[in-house]
TrEMBL record:
Residues annotated as domain Aminotransferase class I/classII large: 27-398
Listed EC numbers: 2.6.1.1
Keyword Transferase annotated: yes
A GO biological-process term: aspartate biosynthetic process
GO cellular component: cytosol
The name this protein goes by in its record: Aspartate aminotransferase
GO molecular function annotation: L-aspartate:2-oxoglutarate aminotransferase activity; pyridoxal phosphate binding
Species this protein is from: Ephemerocybe angulata
């Protein structure tokens, strides 16, 4: 039995981290992993999370019973307000359904499964993914029998958005196609549409009756402002684009391993939402029965307590502020200190945890092999891996590789 099972390749990011760990070079730098690190390259437990954890530990009313199938209600309600906005028409009209999921990955999976079961595709089931996108998107849709197609997104020539290609693809796709959109801080490029470009995207989506499958893994991380990073989602809801949103608290609350996420499906009216809820409940039951409690309790405390909520916003500022400071310092080093050939404006303009440096695969390989700077072959770096101790070494190494 199982003799015919082929050997799968290891996950490229996890492979990179493993290689970094065994490298004895003292100046080695890990820019592969998409997780926040403090200025000493250490994982950071948010002070607000420490406080909320202490509260939970002292709460004698809590037990380890199952949560409801759709999750902890005070968590899902607050999470919906956070992404859709407290004044969202979708919430006021009770036409949004929120499900607690196994972080953002689980939200993507449940959303994909829901589409596979109930979305009436015009032709064979297909989802349009940005080129490039988070590598897991492809696998998640394939798992439920939806074939990923691509839309142009990143233009290597400008190291920015291929807006015309994107719009062209929206126009050329059969009507009622599903498009996966990164709500903010696009992974892996760090390139986001401007508000005007989002509006133009919404125009075509409405015209062609496309479905917006939003993935929002970095709310607050992009700009430091939770509302600003939810702008595109809220705008699309206001404009009546049919959509769902996948939400994750892995990055913005530093709760990676706790797997706290949600799927929000916005319908046209309340009775449709009720039917959607009933089916999501059936799907969730067969997949995980009910979601885990601890992380949702933590986030629920933070979102529902005004003092903790204010402290969380501060913590988000600490994280996004450090990342933005690193962008500025790297830009300064490349343009002023090393005078590295090329234009480096994108280091400043790109948003969120990741930056596409513009390095080609050979240059990225040279960074790993010659400088012990661990980064993916597509030239992506996690800005969170840079800090005041290693940014100079990184800039110097980049400069050497660019000069060949
Ligand atoms: N979507 C995108 C675009 C991501 O970058 C990530 C995290 N790398 C996720 C979803 C899901 O992450 P998690 O399951 O840890 O919430």
């Amino acid at each position: 039995l199982w003799q015919d099972v082929p050997l799968a390749p290891p996950d490229s990011i996890f492979k990179l981290t493993a290689a970094y760990k065994v490298d004895p070079y003292p100046k080695k730098v890990n820019l592969g992993v998409g997780a926040y690190r403090d200025d000493d390259s250490k994982p950071w437990v948010l002070p607000v999370v420490k406080k909320a954890t202490a509260k939970l530990l002292n709460d004698d009313t809590l037990d380890h019973e199952y949560l409801p199938i759709l999750g902890l209600p005070e968590y899902t309600v607050a999470a919906a307000k956070l992404i859709l906005g407290p004044e969202s028409p979708a919430l006021k009209e009770e036409r949004a359904v929120s499900v607690q999921t196994i972080s953002g990955t689980g939200a993507n999976h449940l959303g994909a499964l829901f589409l596979a079961r109930f979305y009436k595709f015009n032709g064979p089931a297909r989802i349009y993914l940005s080129n490039p996108t988070w590598a897991n998107h492809r696998a998640i849709f394939r798992n439920v029998g939806i074939e990923p197609a691509e839309y142009p997104y990143y233009d290597p020539k400008t190291i920015g958005l291929d807006f015309d290609g994107f719009i062209g693809s929206l126009k050329d796709a059969p009507s009622r196609s599903a498009f996966l959109l990164h709500a903010c801080a696009h992974n892996p490029t760090g390139v986001d549409p401007t508000p005007e470009q989002w509006d133009a995207i919404a125009d075509v989506m409405l015209e062609k009756q496309h479905y917006a499958f939003f993935d929002c893994a970095y709310q607050g991380f992009a700009s430091g402002d939770l509302d600003k990073d939810a702008w595109a989602v809220r705008r699309f809801v206001d404009r009546g684009v049919a959509l769902l949103v996948c939400q994750s608290f892995a990055k913005n609350a530093g709760l990676y391993g706790e797997r706290v996420g949600a799927l929000h499906v916005v319908s046209g009216d309340k009775s449709t939402a009720e039917r959607v809820r009933s089916q999501l409940s059936v799907l969730q039951r067969s997949e995980i029965s009910n979601p885990p409690a601890h992380g949702a309790r933590l986030v629920s405390l933070i979102l529902n307590d005004p003092t903790l909520f204010a402290e969380w916003k501060q913590d988000i500022q600490t994280m996004s502020g450090r990342i933005i400071a690193m962008r500025k310092e790297l830009y300064r080093l490349l343009t002023e200190e090393y005078k590295t050939p090329g234009n480096w404006d994108h280091i400043l303009n790109q948003i969120g945890m990741f930056s596409f440096t513009g390095l080609n695969p050979e240059q990225a390989k040279a960074m790993v092999e010659r400088a012990h700077v661990y980064m993916t072959g597509n030239g992506r770096i996690s800005m969170a891996g840079l800090n005041s101790h290693n940014v100079s070494y990184f800039a110097e190494s980049l400069d050497k590789v660019v000069r060949g």
